Amino acid sequence: MNQHPDYLLNKISSPKDLKKLSLAQMEQLAQEIRTLILEKDAAEGGHLGPDLGIVEATIAYHYVFDAPKDKIIWDVSHQTYPHKMLTGRAYGWLDPDRYEDVTPYTNPEESPYDYYAVGHTSTSVALATGMAKARDMLGKHENITALIGDGSLTGGLAFEGFNNAAIEKGNLIIVVNDNQMSIDKNIGGVVTALKKLRDSNGQSPDNPFTAMGFDYKYVSDGNNLQDMISAFRAVKDINHPIVLHINTLKGKGYQPAIDNEEAHHWVLPFDLKTDKTTVPAPKTPNATTTVIDLLEKHIKNNEKILAINAAIPGVFGLDVIKNKYPENYKDVGIAEQESVTFAVGAVKEGIVPILLENSTFLQRAYDQLSHDVAANDLPVVMVVANGGITGGSKTHLGIFDNTMIANWPNWEYLAPTTLNELKSMFDWAVKQRKHPVAIKSPVTPVPEGEVVDEDYSTIHYDIKRGKQVAIIGLGDFYQLGEKVRKLLADHSINASLINPKSAAHLDVEALNDLKKDHELVVTLENNSLAGGFGEKVASFYGPSDMKVMTFGEKREYTDLESVASIYKRNHLTPDQISKDILDVLHQ
Amino acid sequence: MNQHPDYLLNKISSPKDLKKLSLAQMEQLAQEIRTLILEKDAAEGGHLGPDLGIVEATIAYHYVFDAPKDKIIWDVSHQTYPHKMLTGRAYGWLDPDRYEDVTPYTNPEESPYDYYAVGHTSTSVALATGMAKARDMLGKHENITALIGDGSLTGGLAFEGFNNAAIEKGNLIIVVNDNQMSIDKNIGGVVTALKKLRDSNGQSPDNPFTAMGFDYKYVSDGNNLQDMISAFRAVKDINHPIVLHINTLKGKGYQPAIDNEEAHHWVLPFDLKTDKTTVPAPKTPNATTTVIDLLEKHIKNNEKILAINAAIPGVFGLDVIKNKYPENYKDVGIAEQESVTFAVGAVKEGIVPILLENSTFLQRAYDQLSHDVAANDLPVVMVVANGGITGGSKTHLGIFDNTMIANWPNWEYLAPTTLNELKSMFDWAVKQRKHPVAIKSPVTPVPEGEVVDEDYSTIHYDIKRGKQVAIIGLGDFYQLGEKVRKLLADHSINASLINPKSAAHLDVEALNDLKKDHELVVTLENNSLAGGFGEKVASFYGPSDMKVMTFGEKREYTDLESVASIYKRNHLTPDQISKDILDVLHQ
């Protein structure tokens, strides 16, 4: 039920309605939008700081421009709650029963005011430049705007976009939303450049935008609605590329989000009175705390460890390392390519770099992990988080890391089945100084398990020996294998259960040995099947009589679908798997 | 035999020997180096312009600094012939019998003066920054230098590197080698920024480097040896990051290379008197000319075609399009990420973007082709060149494109077996406006073939029907399949031969139908086996009695190994394949 039937927002079904309002009414709207963001985020979690900071700019944009004919591309699109509320989707905030009806990122399937599904940073300027070029080729005349945060500016694609945008011939408006933050504190020379511009009220001659040939305007208070309206009016229908640099306050309207911006970039459900999360703390130890403990252990042991991440310390709980061991910590900003190539430089000089990467963003560094790391066969260590099936947006899926990492020459990609195995793999990865090693951090909870101390230079499978059927459960899907094994036992099948340890290298001897008394090998992996681990096993057994069944996710995108539903559609429940196995055995 | 026993260069076995020379002697050395570059390139082909332009800077560097303790990272490393000659490898130019003994890119296996195998651009600053950080952690004190060309500056990783380099605390020297060219004419806002600096003799306040916080120095004639020595002396042992911007002349010392820089960036063997190539022109029509003809046909047909490439028009012969149809042509500079995301912007607005990408550099755009294109399921068209086994450097291998493209959801990856099939696939890709489609341009020559006009929305295999064994020859390896089929016929095996057309989608009906009277399916693909086409077929047949053998390249890097040798080691000759097949049939 609509919690705020009295809100002015109820009368805004599209930006057209906005254009009838007075400034005072729009300021009231800004208040309403902020309240709604806080209420829904408190109930459900979501992006907070970026949305609170962009309220006035969004209202001003839709007041001045004529979307969807005029087009705005929101970088990352994690700041589009106000945009969504003003473009016919306010119900998704007004009515808790409809919270789920509006998705968190821009979504062209949801609204004609959204142009792309976007969740990775730094794409907006390139997208807008392509649209501007196309508009000119087609003889059309609408305004094309990209809105990019200062955090996203550090990503290389943003720069490539600016480099090309600078020489476009027609209308192109690039709003640099400068809130002095990426997810964590912003990093690097770009910070310096933007600070000079803010400190000089946009007048500093040291201006990287005008250096590249852009026209440039500065708005000192991007949260002042009247100023933003004037600024947008001044650039509307402009006939050349311009950078509109606006200074905004991330988290504006909610003091805890201003005081601690990183913790309020994205929030779990929380109590609006205390700002405390209402979600119970995750059980410890878990994979995240284990990795942090391992980093600390090796740093304390005076090994030359450098923990490197690209603007996502929160994903790994890296604040401990950052605060206690700043010399052993490097955040390169939103710049995954840099994180890897920087690590290559460090490892060559004798440091042990530990890359901490999120599976979905890892895609950004594909070439660096291949050309810079693999072709040079350097012992970079990498921990991959969220590499598996999750219920996230289709822009944030992490189901392709087996396909990337396990197919490059020279890389080892280890997948632990327990926390103690994670420790063993990490210790070995740091100690061996021969090849690049990545570790797939478990996505589903894994048990602590028995203490292990193993050399993974050559992969030797752990086998609970049975016969007829062998189940190979990779990483956190090993436990799924255990469940399947139990179900098969009910059918008098004493299946073997195997921990393969590696997504990249097969234990050929063990696999050959299975041929003696097994007729079917089943692989389970928490990854896309396409190009993954199972296909390698199937290919290995191809010329033999052994049958192989591969379980994992189909080649598909899922979008905010529950994990249970994804599992079911992909035949990944123990019941489905055992039934499928029995079907093949009896065919 | 040494062709120039009289050269001073014979006395330089390491940079130490260089330090004893007078300026006049070093100028003589510069002449010798230029002559040798021209002589070897004329005989063998190789990079020309970049090496001719960097002679003085290289001599000055090794005169002033103390390599290999002091370290210089050469971006792309296509300008390191002078560096190699001064670091004990002059024999690779002096003696034609030893031309093959020195490799074209930096190579740590070849010399302690080379630190990385590098062939992709824009990595040097990130590498040097990682090295500088490691040096400081280890309490060492050497000079770390990156040398990056203005062309490489347009790559996003370069910018990410600069952004982090700017905040390093210790010694870090970044030489921006500004020759006003990438491979083709340089592109974008960076051009504008550098021009302002050159035109003002480094004095323009519009300085993107100082804006980011760098110290900055300018050398107006980077081909003046004395000036370069002075400049390097001034920055040696500096205690903070500095950008040393040097203005050099690409191709200096060879007028044709100055007059037409793009054509002389990299050259085939040529006649020094006439500058004409001594290599016979490739037979036409071939895959390259076919793609150009197709582009021209669709442009003339007034379809809204935009041919997009990232600074490699020469690879595709795109000069024709650039000159005749400038409105339908876009070179984004060395910026593969931008090429793709720009295309996404254009296609969304109703243009048909045709990306022309080199398989090895395509890796740079992995995330854009996944997150920006695939997750949005937009009908971008892409032609992939050099996707297959070649005899190139390990930094330039193109054997991973099946593994990348055919494993993303929504992408189709077509592989033509003839030039007419290439036409049919291209025409369909442009016409269908539903999904992203890539085409694997043949690497080995393919015949013209019969005219085809097909809809590839659903893949239907072309089958020359036999029995017992089915050979599936993907793309340019179809002809290999034909040869194998003939050899099997000598053993009374009437094998089926299949053109599968797609690396991404299987014709399930056809594959199931083979089960009736075939016991073995053989896949042939010009790609790495890991994550490739064959593994998909093996996985498909996994639960059945069908045996599968997959042929392609092992998961490995090759480095300047001949194609014949790579084929042989990987059992890719018709004789080896047919023997392997017979072995499995008789086992």
TrEMBL record, chains A, B:
Entries under PANTHER family matching the protein: 1-D-DEOXYXYLULOSE 5-PHOSPHATE SYNTHASE-RELATED, 1-DEOXY-D-XYLULOSE-5-PHOSPHATE SYNTHASE
Cofactor(s) it depends on: Mg(2+); thiamine diphosphate
GO BP term, pick one: terpenoid biosynthetic process
InterPro entries: Dxylulose-5-P_synthase (IPR005477), THDP-binding (IPR029061), Transketo_C/PFOR_II (IPR009014), Transketolase-like_Pyr-bd (IPR005475), Transketolase_C (IPR033248), Transketolase_CS (IPR049557)
SUPFAM superfamilies per the UniProt record, alphabetical: Thiamin diphosphate-binding fold (THDP-binding), TK C-terminal domain-like
SMART domains from the UniProt entry: Transket_pyr
Subunit structure: Homodimer.
NCBIfam families: PRK05444.2-2, PRK12315.1
The protein's name: 1-deoxy-D-xylulose-5-phosphate synthase
Similarity comment: family membership: Belongs to the transketolase family. DXPS subfamily.
Domain Transketolase-like pyrimidine-binding: 282-448
Molecular function per GO: 1-deoxy-D-xylulose-5-phosphate synthase activity; metal ion binding
GO CC field: cytosol
Associated pathway: Metabolic intermediate biosynthesis; 1-deoxy-D-xylulose 5-phosphate biosynthesis; 1-deoxy-D-xylulose 5-phosphate from D-glyceraldehyde 3-phosphate and pyruvate: step 1/1
Enzyme nomenclature, EC number: 2.2.1.7
Keyword set, alphabetical order: Isoprene biosynthesis, Magnesium, Metal-binding, Thiamine biosynthesis, Thiamine pyrophosphate, Transferase
